[in-house]
Write a structure and sequence with these properties.
The structure is a single chain. The protein is mainly α. It folds into 2 domains: 41 residues; 42 residues. Helix 3 packs antiparallel against helix 4. The longest helix is centred in the C-terminal third of the chain and has 26 residues. The chain is extended, with a radius of gyration of 19 Å. It starts with 12 loop residues before the first helix and ends with a helix.
Length: 94
């Protein structure tokens, strides 16, 4: 296909699994993503916008999560927690 642009995005594991389940011969994950984008041009998602209060909440939650991750890394760095404890807690934060 001509004029395709490479794009790197992050999606949740569950979203990836759903895409992988729908993909198959002749239907790639890239095709499914392009098709989903085309569908957003009409319908309820044709214009997506953040309300200021929603964005503020999102930003606050993101900062809180970063603080938790930083604290966890510090605990691991100074051997306050084991590798297993670090991995278990880190999984719960994601």
């Amino acid at each position: 296909m001509k004029n395709l642009k490479r794009l790197s995005v992050q999606i949740r594991e569950e979203q990836y699994r759903r895409l992988k389940d729908k993909a198959g011969p002749g239907v790639s994950i890239s095709y499914l993503v392009r098709h989903a984008i085309d569908l957003t041009d009409s319908g309820p998602f044709s214009r997506v916008s953040f309300q200021q209060s929603s964005y503020a909440e999102y930003e606050s939650n993101s900062i809180d999560n970063l603080k938790k991750i930083h604290a966890l890394i510090t605990l691991k760095k100074y051997d306050v927690i084991t590798d297993d404890e670090y991995l278990n807690i880190r999984k719960r934060l994601d």
